[in-house]
Design brief:
335 residues, alpha/beta, Collagenase (Catalytic Domain), 2 domains, 8 helices, globular, disordered N terminus, disordered C terminus, metallopeptidase activity
Amino acid sequence: MAKLRDRRAQIALTLAFLFVVHLVGVAHATIIVNSALPITHRVDVQIIQTSLSSGSPQANLFGSAVQRANIEASIDMIWAQAGIDIHFMPSVKSYADTVAFQGLLPPTSTRPNADLYTIVNTAQAAGVVSSNSHVINMFFVDIVPGFMKLGSNSVNGIARIGANGIAVYVGSSLPGSQVGRDIVAGVVAHEIGHNLGLTHTPVSGMANLMSSSGTSDQLTQSQIDAIFQMNTFFLQSAAPVGDFTGDGMVNGTDLTVWRNSFGINANGDSDGDGDSDGRDFLAWLEQYGSSSGISATSQVVPEPTSGILLLAVIALIVALQRICRNREDMALQLR
């Protein structure tokens, strides 16, 4: 059953040869995509939650942790048809800035398109954006540039084509239902497509992710080819989660890297939170035996043998003991 979606898109501003585009989603049914391809590349996305300069209120995100996981999984499913894994960084950055949150005009007025550039540039100056220039910065705001304030059942966005920066508004009611979450996933996936260099299809109402008023989230092979031909700055080679050595395999060598990095550095970091801890160990354990090029539709990996599992548990215990000893030594030095 085709989904229904009202996307009103405008290309309203050209600045340094980069276009800004808008998207509004108000209704939609099941997500429709093409078959997933083997995952060969990854795109990292940093969520930045804006607020008034006072710190409150904050812009809506993807709802609860469960709702966020559902939306992000749907976005990942949409882009799996291109062999691209969309990885949202687990941490959320906060940006208390009234101009970023809602702009300077009354909510009944249309916010200037150029405010997207203001949001990105001021956040960069404030040190809020990701320190990794390959990571897409996605700002959640109360009023998206190019629009006036929308209601709780709407979602819209604006993005730079082939450049960094997305602003999104998510109505508070949408994450509460699967239909609403699918609406959000489609709009956000569309905006990511613009950062990856895709423009709108020439005809609206097509069964295509990049179509204005599109009826599906499908991509054509030519669109997928275009992304890779442009060699967009945000595409990174995908490595299996837990592959700390970068050799394309998750095995005992990666366990050694994690063990030596535990509590010390991020060499054994698999979830992007900037450290090597127990969660990264569990990610390694879950993906043990996998290699690069895993199909996004079937990421089933061999269960660790009992011997490997025992070795992993012992490694975890040893690492924890080492951290405890280090903390005890530090406590003695402070006495």
